[in-house]
Amino acid sequence: MLLLSAATVLVTNIVMAPVHAQNPSQPALPDNVQARVDDVMPDVVAWRRDFHQHPELGNREFRTAGIIAEHLESLGMEVETGIAHTGVVGVLRGGQPGPVVALRADMDALPVEERVDLPFASQVTTQYNGQEVGVMHACGHDNHMAILMGAASVLAGMQAELPGTVMFIFQPAEEGAPEGEEGGAELMLAEGIFDAMRPDAVFGLHVWPIPAGVIAVREGGTMASSDSFSITVQGQQTHGAAPWAGIDPIVVASQIVMGLQTIPSRQLNATTTPSIVTVGAINGGLRSNIIPDSVEMIGTLRTFDADTRTQIHQRVTRTAEQIAASAGATAEVEINLGYPVTANDPDLTRAMQPTLQRVVGDRLTESPLITGAEDFSYYANEVPGMFFFLGIAADDPEMVYPNHSPFFYADESALPVGVQAMTALALDFLSGP
Ligand SMILES: [Zn+2]
Ligand SMILES: [Zn+2]
Q1: pLDDT value at position 129?
Q2: Residue ranges of the chain with pLDDT lower than 70?
Q3: String of DSSP letters for 140-208
Q4: Would you tell me how many other CB atoms lie within 10 Å of the CB of residue 145?
Q5: Distance CA 140, CA 112 (A)
Q6: From the CA of 193, how far away is ligand 1's center (Å)?
Q7: Cα(86) to centroid of ligand 1, in Å?
Q8: Pick from 26, 88, 212, 263: CA 20 to 30 A from residue 138's CA?
Q9: 417 phi and psi angles, rounded to 5 deg
Q10: Residue 108 DSSP symbol
Q11: For residue 99, how far is its CA from the centre of ligand 1 (angstroms)?
Q12: Which of 105, 137, 139 is nearest to 124 (CA)?
C-alpha cells in the first residue's frame, strides 16, 4: 500500500457486520489440502520472520528475491528472475487442462526504523536519497511473500490434479521506485509478464490493522487513484505597497486553492464516488513588502472511479488556468499520473465470495474505501482482479498501528488464514463454478 493516511480511518471506522453467516459444515479446504497447509505453516512463519529481519527497499530486494526463486525452483516450477529489477515469477502448470490464475505478493520494505520489540525486529540500515535510514517491513509485505510461498508449496504438492495453471508473481517496489528509476507492477507488465501467459484472473491481498484473521473486500473501486499535480502561477513582481503596479500571484494562488475545493464539492457527481483534492504546499515570496513574480503549489488527487479521475484532471487544469486569467496572471498545470484506481472486478468478486466465506466464515466483511493507492491496480486493469485485506491486528489495542508506522505489528495468527485464502481462491477459480 502506497501512502498510509487511510489506515487509521479504517482502524476506527470498520464496521464488523458479517456479510454472510458462517456455514460450519463447509471446511475452507478439503482435508488433504488443509493438511498440506498445516504442514507448511512452520515454514511460512520462518520465512516471514526471516524477511522481516532482513528487509530490503524497492528495486533492491536481492536477498529476498533469491530466497523466493530458490523456493519456487525447489517446487519444480518454471521460474523467471530479474523482472523489473528484482521481480520473480513462477509458473505451476497443473496436470489437468484449465484456466490461468495469477497470485501476487509485493516484496519491498520502507525507509522506517523499526520500533517494535520483536526477537526478529529489523536492525537493517541503508542509504536512501543520500541519507542513512533504518529499513523495516512497515507495510507488512513480509507477510504477503511468506503467505504466497506457502500457497505455492500447497499448490505444487497437488500439481498432478490441478486443473489449470498458477502464476506466482513476486513484485518489487510497490511503494514506488527510488528516484530516477522505474519499478513495480507497471514495469513488471511492461517487461511482458502477461504477454507470454495471460491470466484469466489475478488475486492479491494486503495485511491491514483490522482484527487478525478478518478478511475485508468490496466490489469495484477499493483503493484510490493517486495522482500529483503542480501549479505555477505567474504574476508580475511589484512593491507590496503598490499592488496595482503588478499582478499578485499570491492572491491568485489563494483563489485557486479555494476554487479547487469546489471540484469535489460542487462539480463532480457526489453520488458516484468520493474524491479528494489536496494542496500540500504553497511556495512564493520572500519579504512582507514585495509581491513576488510567481507562486508554486503542489498537491495530490484521489478518487475511486476512472472516469471521475479524468474529469478531475480536466477540472483542476481549467480552474487554475481560468482563475489566473481572471486576474491577468497565468497558471501552468502539470499532472503527474500515479497509481490507477484499484478496482475489483464485480463478477469475479461476487464469484469468489463463497470461497472467502468458507475460509473465514462470519469474519468476512465489506471493506470500506481506502484512500491510499496500490499498484496491484495495473494488473487489475489488464485482467479481472480482486484485491482484499487480511486483518493482522493484535487483541491488545496498544499494539495496533497503521501501515508504515515504526510500530506496525502483524499478528502471526493471520498467516494460516492468508495461505488458506490464496490457496482456496486459486483452486476454486481453476475449478470453475
Ligand atoms: Zn505501504
Ligand atoms: Zn503495502
Answers
A1: 84
A2: 1-25
A3: -HHHHHHHHHHHHHHHHTTGGG-EEEEEEEEES-TT-PPTT---HHHHHHHTTHHHHS--SEEEEEEEE
A4: 28
A5: 12
A6: 23
A7: 18
A8: 88
A9: -65, -40
A10: -
A11: 31
A12: 137
Q: Give the residue carrying C-alpha cell 481549467.
A: 318
pLDDT averaged over every residue in the chain: 94
Handedness of CA 210, 213, 214, 217 (dihedral sign): positive
Whether 412 is a known active-site residue: answer yes
Q: Are 27 and 229 in contact (CB under 8 A)?
A: no
Residues 6+ apart with CB under 8 A from 127: 133
User: Which amino acid type is present at position 103?
Assistant: L
Instruction: Supply the pLDDT for residue 25.
Output: 56
pLDDT at site 13? 39
Ligand 2 centroid to 130 CA: how many Å? 23
Residue 237's closest CA among 296, 290, 288, 297? 290
Catalytic residue, candidates 114, 186, 339, 401: 339
Q: Give catalytic status of residue 339 as yes or no.
A: yes
User: What residue numbers does the annotated binding site cover?
Assistant: 139, 141, 175, 206, 404
Between CA 24 and CA 114 the distance in angstroms is: 40
Ligand nearest, relative to CA of residue 226: 1
Whole-number pLDDT of residue 3: 53
- CA distance linking residue 391 with residue 409, whole number of Å: 11
Query: Per the structure block, which three cell numbers stand in for 169?
Result: 508473481
Rounded Cα distance, 88 and 66, in Å: 9
Burial class, 279, CB count within 10 angstroms (exposed 0-12 / middle 13-18 / buried 19+)? middle
113, 296, 332, 412: which is the annotated catalytic residue? Answer: 412
Q: Which three cell numbers stand for residue 159?
A: 500439481
**Cα–Cα nearest to 412, from 19, 48, 162:** 48
Chain centroid, CA 419 distance in Å: 19
